[in-house]
């Protein structure tokens, strides 16, 4: 977005909030998936 | 509490993480088994007794979703998420008190009853809102949230186990673990409460259909339509078939290859169960998003038709090839997850967005029924076959054919789904406003 676009009426940039929100839920989910993958590989190695 | 209206410029991509913060939390329910052995040894409980909080929680999930759905529609998603947060977290806190004082009934009451209400209200809390924000991709939107419910157990299972390892498995260690769970989930779910908003217009996305386009049916009328009961049967049969595999996954793969040269070890069987969880989760987002492209009826044809075919392959040639067995089971579990995640969008197609959350809540009684039916069929038949002296894959042959039959019933029910008769539709908003205006002018005349 160019500076000219940001008039007083324009809504605030939500991108940092979107990134934070997805990180909030994504980080624990990534941990869960990582643990799952570790366990699932036992099917091929166990 | 009035529904929180989104301010101008609010992004719809803030709503899925709000929904996920709730579903990833309440999905912990499927990791209850982590607490079972420590509770049994610390409080001297039997296996049946230690399962009681989970069973009550699932019953309460079904009941609160069915009876609380209309309240959720009336008060909005923020109210629902707040109720879910309070109930789910205080369920853990009451359980912590129960473990600390060694009063098991408090754990049953806390986790099972109070926490269970949080599960039901939390499960349906974002559904209607997501559909309103994503009228162009309702399957994908609800798929993300409902995938979170599957993901919740993936997070909680290793997390709870590590916590018990650190705090100890005696009653004070369990109490501390419950306390940390309650507080952590309260903080985690707060994001959902703070972020969730309902769209300010009927058309939140340029070029997408209005959320009020198409027929709109109230929850009260929906349960009187054959379409609702057809979908009830579809969901019940699909879930029963999935649970049929999930319930006995580890012993099943071991028994199938008991007499072959490539036997399956206990750790490999555990890996198989983990892989099934991954397929379940992937199916929720993958198949539900696919339904936006190929249509809801077609995707259920796939779940039920191809699902029956997968069961047939396992029954006939499953013991001859391990990769084939694993592949078929993975496909079945992906259909199981997909079936859960696609149903809200199917309901939206048939009944509109007006009270889709409440209708979804009522339909979840099919899940509760399947939760009893599936394990009952598989375990009862496997026990009888064992008594009859059977072993290996033949222990499961009859169960597999019963599952094929159930899927066929679901397939027929899906074929019977037709658009809802116009007599069940509520008047369109403009039409309703005109009627109200006419009534008002008639009264003042």
Q: What does this entry show, briefly?
A:
Chain A is an all-alpha fold and 46 residues long. Chain A has two helices and no strands. Chain B has helices spanning 15-26, 36-43, 47-75, 77-100, 104-124, 127-133, 138-167, 171-195, 219-222, 226-247, 249-256, 266-294, 296-317, 322-351, 356-363, 365-387, 397-415, 429-444.
What is the share of helical residues of chain A?
55-70%
Distance between the termini of chain A: 53 Å
Largest sheet of chain A: none
What share of the residues of chain B does DSSP label as strand, in percent? under 5%
Spatial extent as radius of gyration of chain A: 20 Å
List the secondary-structure elements of chain A in sequence, H or E.
Answer: HH
Q: Give the uncertain stretches of chain A in residue-range form.
A: 1-6
Apparent shape of chain B: globular
Layout of strands and helices, then pairs:
The complex is a heterodimer of chains A (46) and B (445).
Chain A: H1 15-40, H2 42-45
Chain B: H1 15-26, H2 36-43, H3 47-75, H4 77-100, H5 104-124, H6 127-133, H7 138-167, H8 171-195, H9 219-222, H10 226-247, H11 249-256, H12 266-294, H13 296-317, H14 322-351, H15 356-363, H16 365-387, H17 397-415, H18 429-444
Helix pairs in contact in B: 1-7, 1-8, 2-3, 3-4, 3-5, 3-15, 4-5, 4-8, 6-7, 7-8, 7-12, 7-14, 10-14, 10-16, 10-17, 11-12, 12-13, 12-14, 13-14, 13-17, 14-15
